Amino acid sequence: MRVEKNGAQSGKIFGGLWLVFFFQGMGPGFWVPALTNILKAEGYADWTPWVFAIGPACALISPVIGGAMADERVPAQKLFAWCSFVSAAMLCLAFGALKMGLGPVWFMVGLAFYALASGPTWGLLATISLKHLSNGEKNYPLVRVGATFGWIAAGFVASYVLHADSSPVAGLASAVVRTLAGLVALGLPNTPPLGLGKSWRSAFGLGVFSLLKKRDHAVLFGVTGLFSIPLVAFYMYSAEFFKALGDKTPTASMTVAQWSEVAAMLSLSALMVRYRLKTMLMYGLGLSAVRFAMSGYAGFTDVKGWHVAGVALHGVCYTMYFVTAQVYLDRRVDPALRSQAQGLLGLMMAGLGPLIGAFFCGWLRDFCVDDAGNGWENFWWVLAGMIAVCWGAFAVMYRGVMTPGK
């Protein structure tokens, strides 16, 4: 049960969470959209699928265990802070090694430990927000949009201030803001563990897999994992495709997705009141198929505007699906398992799905796109078809609760 707070206290909590989300989004916003171009500039283009796979491989472990620690042992805000500090140090190791020319192996080692440390952070922030915000489901999208503004700011700083569209400096800048996120998080309201788990299974977060016994939970987690396979292509190849279309500042151009995400976040509360969660999730999946098809049409016509429009639609799709999924877990999962449930969602969307997707999308890109840059349309259209299958599977298999908002 959430405790209502007076206006000043509620405003302080809202502001603190918004700022943490801002730095949290700013961190990956510096280097994730630019990573493929950074690797190409350093001469490691062939390592791209492996680099994009290392983070998801580590995310198979850390989100659920991190959620278990927050549910049973460590206050969530302290765990988030320490995860942020360690991930900042690992980013310094990874991109510092790249900048010093130590080769891709040290970079991947640093990135692996970064992924282990940062894996639980998004789920922890969702748990803290939904617990302490007054009218959490309504106000959560409004603080979550801070991460979107952070990502936008990082893209413009990386392109126009640091000129780091193809430089390891982008990763070092991310380490700075990761540290700031941890420092601000220490001032968030205390979110103590419930301490209900007693077995070794709960200590390692394995109890959360009992959620898969319920049909709707299993469908949500399963479709999220499948959806995340083609979705990883957005992060791996959208900026490269911008560059192939003649864009000189692809990292900044990628932020168009975050601008549309802002609009979607601000509209999400009203949409959740009007529509069932199933409807929201299906819109997110359906529009994602359209979004990838638009990028495919850009490859077919060689018109950059179609790719811009597709990337812009990505922000809407991401919000409608993944933020709605986080609210679903807060509504339909027992409080003692909520942090672990958010961690399991993180495992599917940032671990298992992207791990498979990194290798599949890498293979598909090499299969479809030749050395002259022809074939991008086939690459994006295949991925659009995969998402359409996810949409159909969710429509048929998910039942929902026949009450408003479910």
In words, what does this structure look like?
It is built from 17 helices and no strands. The model is unreliable at 197-204 (pLDDT under 50). It is an all-alpha fold and 406 residues long. The protein starts with 6 loop residues before the first helix and ends in a 9-residue tail after the last helix. Helix 3 (48-59) runs parallel beside helix 6 (104-118) and helix 14 runs antiparallel to helix 17 (376-397). The protein is 77% helix and 0% strand. It has helices at residues 7-31, 35-41, 48-59, 62-72, 76-99, 104-118, 121-132, 136-161, 169-185, 200-203, 215-244, 250-253, 256-274, 277-301, 304-332, 338-368, 376-397.
Secondary-structure map with pairings?
Layout: H1 7-31, H2 35-41, H3 48-59, H4 62-72, H5 76-99, H6 104-118, H7 121-132, H8 136-161, H9 169-185, H10 200-203, H11 215-244, H12 250-253, H13 256-274, H14 277-301, H15 304-332, H16 338-368, H17 376-397
Summarize the structure.
The chain is 77% helix and 0% strand. It has helices at residues 7-31, 35-41, 48-59, 62-72, 76-99, 104-118, 121-132, 136-161, 169-185, 200-203, 215-244, 250-253, 256-274, 277-301, 304-332, 338-368, 376-397. The two termini are 19 Å apart.
